[in-house]
Design brief:
Radius of gyration: 22 Å
Helix content: over 70%
Family: Belongs to the binding-protein-dependent transport system permease family. CysTW subfamily.
Mean pLDDT: 86
Strand content: under 5%
Order of helices and strands: HHHHHHHHHHH
Subcellular location: Cell membrane
Largest sheet: none
Membrane topology: Multi-pass membrane protein
Protein name: ABC transporter permease
Number of helices: 11
Distance between the termini: 38 Å
Structural class: mainly alpha
CATH topology of one domain: MetI-like fold
Number of strands: 0
Keywords: Cell membrane, Membrane, Transmembrane, Transmembrane helix, Transport
Length: about 260
């Protein structure tokens, strides 16, 4: 019975892994599809030509650039603001800290359609033109909580005596933060910032509400599904996945060397 349970758990685990990997494998495969037309319909042979024609579709390239710029801006802005919130929640006790914690978790659990609609209502009420910057603001709003919670968890594990020792040795508040606190919380800051980047670059629902005339990579793909997906989309998706995979592997290697 125990053997059956163990094998059953292993089979279930591999099925879940296959469920996650198969769509990615199909995307990678169709990036090499030697299709005769502009759109991927069936695999017709192996070719590398689409990697050479990656930026051939101008509006697709523009959409990818928009997504990357928005994701980088979101990562930086949400990374800074979320890290400061996480540091405050993890280190200090102040009036309203409990309410702030609840608000952070509420933002994480909130459905994207609710946040997207509420932000759209806000922009319309304030007569803010929809476009690139409203997407950035929207992405910062829904990703800042993820950064704050990640940094907060890191801060709560720190030894406060190290900061006290720095102050005893004559370091000021800024020097203590720069030389002691920031290096200790930096893994949490980076993890939260990268999470904000990942959430931003593939967001569709909130972006669709607040994009105006700006088209991002997910929005372009959604529009293209009515006529067909060109192979360049699969190539771009493959490259994005490869970069993310390299970052994850590099982080794992660095973490192992530090042990």
């Amino acid at each position: 019975m125990k053997i059956f349970r163990g094998r059953g758990l292993q089979i279930y685990t591999w099925l879940v892994i296959a469920w996650l990997v198969v769509p990615i494998a199909v995307m990678v495969l169709f990036g090499f599809n030697d299709t005769k037309g502009r759109y991927n319909t069936a695999f017709q042979g192996f070719t590398l030509k689409w990697y050479g024609k990656l930026f051939e579709i101008g509006d697709l390239t523009e959409a990818l650039v928009n997504s990357l710029l928005i994701a980088v801006l979101t990562m930086v802005i949400a990374g800074v603001l979320g890290s400061l919130i996480g540091l405050a929640l993890g280190r200090y006790r102040f009036r309203g800290a409990g309410a702030m914690n609840v608000m952070m978790f509420a933002a994480i659990s909130c459905a994207e359609i609710v946040m997207g609609a509420s932000l759209l209502s806000l922009f319309v009420t304030l007569a803010v033109p929809l476009g690139f910057w409203t997407i950035v603001i929207s992405h910062v709003m829904f990703s800042i909580s993820f950064v704050a919670i990640t940094v907060r968890a890191r801060v709560m594990t720190l030894d406060a005596s190290l900061e006290e020792a720095a102050r005893d040795l004559g370091a000021g508040t800024w020097t203590t933060f720069r030389l002691v606190t920031l290096p200790m919380i930096f893994p949490g800051v980076m993890a939260g910032s990268m999470l904000a980047f990942a959430l931003s670059i593939d967001d569709f629902v909130i972006t669709n509400f607040n994009s105006g005339g700006t088209v991002t990579f997910p929005l372009w793909i959604w529009g293209a599904t009515r006529v067909g997906i060109p192979p360049q989309v699969n190539v771009m998706g493959t490259l994005i996945f490869a970069v993310g995979l390299l970052i994850a592997v590099g982080n794992a290697v660095v973490a192992r060397r530090r042990r």
